[in-house]
Protein 1
Amino acid sequence: MEKHFDIIIIGAGPAGLIAAARASQLGNRILVLEKMAQAARKLRITGKGRCNITNTAPLSEFVKCIHPEGKKLRPAFSRFFSKNLIDFFAEINIPTKEERGSRIFPLSDDANVVADALISYCKTQKVEFLLNAEVQDISISDEPAKNLRITINNPKQQFSAHSIIIATGGLSYPATGCTGDGYKFAKQTNHLIIPTRPALVPLRVNHPKVSELMGLSLKNVTASLWVEGKKMQSEFGEMLFTHFGLSGPIILTLSRLAVDSLNEKKKVQIQIDLKPALDDQKLDQRLLREIDEHGKMKISSYLKLLLPGLLAPFCAQELGFDSEKQANTISALERKKLRVWLKNLVFNVVGHTGFKEAIITAGGVSISDINLETFESKKVENVYFAGEVLDFDADTGGYNLQIAFTTGWLAGEAAAKQVSGSR
């Protein structure tokens, strides 16, 4: 026999869970369908397992970190934003703390605590969960009380609901269950899908020696993205070398535009300023002073005063220095080459990793088909979309989770009120 609910939510990630929490607060019978054996799989690994819940940047700055049109979320954020989220988490016993860059984390530094608390809260609100429940089909009927039907497998079952919230995530980290199911459902109902591609991903470079730097982390550097010889974007902070190229927070932020430019077959480069606090003149003065002070050192030892261990021999190779010579043998021309290298370390970007390593998905259900105050579809009444399935993605720093929580909360609220109004 077909079971009927007020609202069915597809996907037990951050958007789906908070939608269930809000809708159940307003007195609705909720079913959450999750295709994996465990709810909130991706949420449990966010922020390297620490869960960067949100960011307390002012709204005007916050929306600048969202792509492609962050300002269109202003009305939604005016109703449920970072302070509202922090207050909600406090109510369900998840105290938070603020760290550098206005990033908010749970006091426990444990993403599992966040996921489990959300699930526990939903269960106290009588939300029902069905795991290992992959949705096969969504159908729409003309019956006013049961106008939406869902068929799931394992075992094959049917459910009906007044409203459905699709919070299936995108394509990033497919091992957590994000395999693009929501796009399939959206296409079935003629929603426009903006082409999807990985965002916040490590970049591949073609430098023959980059693997020698694997594991090296740099702090307080500036990385700039150049496309066809034009500087497009710069970020200051931390980065990481991998065996194939570049990663870390500032590289991930630059990767969105890098991926799109590579897809357009454009020349892409990353330029790293290892000494962003010093202009050319001040850097040259420092080099002169240190060469004078440490002139009897071997060049290999002298470079370690300027650079992290792994980068010192890399620099010597790049510039053709004889590491066994003394530092005071460095000529004016060689000093200039060193100064330029420190301010302009360039890597040619030839690719990027895929969805398996992407933190977020760019593209998705077009926001032109969505009411951005309720997140209800403009194409199909009583169908809502929330979270990564939508065509919103953001920089690292808690912005993406806030999008998921805001869109989920408002979708849950709007769906619940619509159910109440139909009674």
Protein 2
Amino acid sequence: MANAVGMVEVLGLPPALAAADTMCKAANVTLVGMEKVSGARYTVIVRGDVSEVNIAVETGVAAAKGVIGDKELYLSSHVIARPSENLEYVLKSMRPNARLAQYLEPAAILPTAR
């Protein structure tokens, strides 16, 4: 079960893609999505175990900082361990789509035998 959320915010699509790719390769996390916040700001969101999300966020930050640009493209990052269930209910970006749900809560989507 995914019990942590990690986010990396960057300026531009290239560092967002670099961060997302590196985060998924470096740790056992599920990419929930990439949110276009405003203008050229993107937030990459992953879920997984706390230790895995920490590793993913650290490597995502390094990848974003490695993208060369005229200015600093990395903006911020944060890990939330054990987020409130209310976050998933209220925030659309925290709700995994049907394809991702099978990886986050496999027991919850299996039909029960009657």
Protein 3
Amino acid sequence: MIVSLPMFGDYYTNNLLSGSPKTTMLGNLIDDAVGSTGQGNKAAAFVLILMVLVLIPMLYYMRSTSRSLVNR
């Protein structure tokens, strides 16, 4: 999880190093949607998708580690 979190939120480095549209990350899409007029719904949808993509593996990890601690 620690390795994948910057992928979701670190969009500034991508813009700084490469302005190429081929390297767009989810953070870039959210940033573009928030910065555009009338795109609040699109930005909110992207944030919800991002939350689901981060929370599901995190909950799985927490559940599996708690089970292993109980089984000791």
